[in-house]
Amino acid sequence: MKFLLKQIEKNEKHFLKGGKFEKFHPLWEAATTFLFTPSERTPSKGPHVRDSVDLKRVMITVVLALLPCVFFSFYNTGFQTARAYGEEGDFLWWQLSWNGILINLPLILVSYAVGGAWEGLFAVIRRHKVSEGFLVTGILFPLTLPPTMPLWQAAVGISFGVVVGKEIFGGTGMNILNPALTGRVFLFFSFPVDISGTKVWTKIFDSSNSFLDRIFGPLFFHNWNLQPVDTFSGATSLSLVAELPTGGEPIQALLKDPHMSYGLWELFLGLVPGSMGETSALMCLIGAIILIVTGVGSFSIIAGCVLGACSMSFFLNLFASPELPAFLALPFYYQLVMGGFLFGAVFMATDPVSASGTPSGKWVYGFLIGMFCILIRIWNPAYPEGMMLSILFINIFSPLIDHYTIRFHIKRRKRRESW
């Protein structure tokens, strides 16, 4: 590493002002600071605010909090793929995980490569540093996708998320919407069949599929030419409840699904179909603990989301009847562990740029996200997930929430002073 550091210091002059590669300084700076501590530091003396926490450390902490979801997604993808072929009991955990890596890793690599290229291009054009914020966006985006998402669609989605969701507003710190969710919502409305998640596990390994499938598939599946069993549907828990007829029993439908049981424990652990990173409520809670303990994630927003969802679910349960959608009768504790609710509440809603910034506003912001998520799930079966649209919708109103929160506190202070 010392040799590499010496080479960097030796060639740095070419990328500084006046050097022959001056225009590429943002890319050079991004590469060197990724490998080593930046050479520019705040002076130890003078009127400077010094803190060991910077943007890089914050983003790395979020990535570390996401790792439990990433690793679990590898295992669950391999497990669900083997289940589609009726072979889930024939492999060890590491074989299932490796199979999941072969499926999920290309999506993650495409997200980082294409999104990183856009970040670098805008940094060179604007002559500013490449933001470490993309370390989070690049991993969040693929975790919101089903494993069967075509790679070219993932490339289009992350391009839209980075360019339209962030760069046209001025880059990191200026965006009003969560970039990862902006890319996902673009794919959701552009390619609804591929991203719907209703049949996400049924056609991953087919001898007519990609080059990687044809090479690596025979290593793990006994019957390479065997298609998934005809009766396997792979429906997610949310789509299963959303498709129930009026007056249906949602819990009974989840527990008695002919292909798998969607019991509370199974949903909490996450061994069910769904998008790559959203299925395990347990992994999301581990990530929440990491973010809250380190002070990177907002406890107020996460707790507000949970309170909002529970309150709206309690309220709508009062109106459950045979004449109304079956979703109304679903208890709040099922709502919390189904789909991407916790994943969105922990990793998406807490985005410090697009979320509310005032202490009181964070509670309101989180509460509204949880409330609207349940409303969208119940009253619009075309969007059974709900969390994605809810976060983006409340992102737009976060400046307004902060504005009226500040005005409320100013008026309250004036009333106290008048006493």
Care to describe what's here?
- It is built from 18 helices and no strands.
- With 419 residues, it is mainly alpha-helical.
- The chain has 2 domains: 140 residues, no CATH class; 166 residues, no CATH class.
- The longest helix is centred in the first third of the chain and has 34 residues.
List keywords for this structure.
419 residues, mainly alpha
Summarize this structure briefly.
The protein is mainly alpha-helical. Helix content is 59%, strand content 0%.
Quaternary:
single chain
Tell me the number of helical segments per DSSP (H or I, 4 or more residues long). 18
Structural class: mainly alpha
How would you sum up the major sheet? none
**How many beta strands in the DSSP annotation?**
0
Query: What percent of the residues sit in helical stretches (DSSP H or I)?
Result: 55-70%
Strand content: under 5%
Measured distance between first and last alpha carbons? 66 Å
Q: How many separate structural domains?
A: 2
The gross shape turns out to be globular
Overall average pLDDT: 81
Q: In angstroms, what is the radius of gyration?
A: 23 Å
Along the chain, the helix and strand elements come as HHHHHHHHHHHHHHHHHH
Low-confidence stretches are 198-233
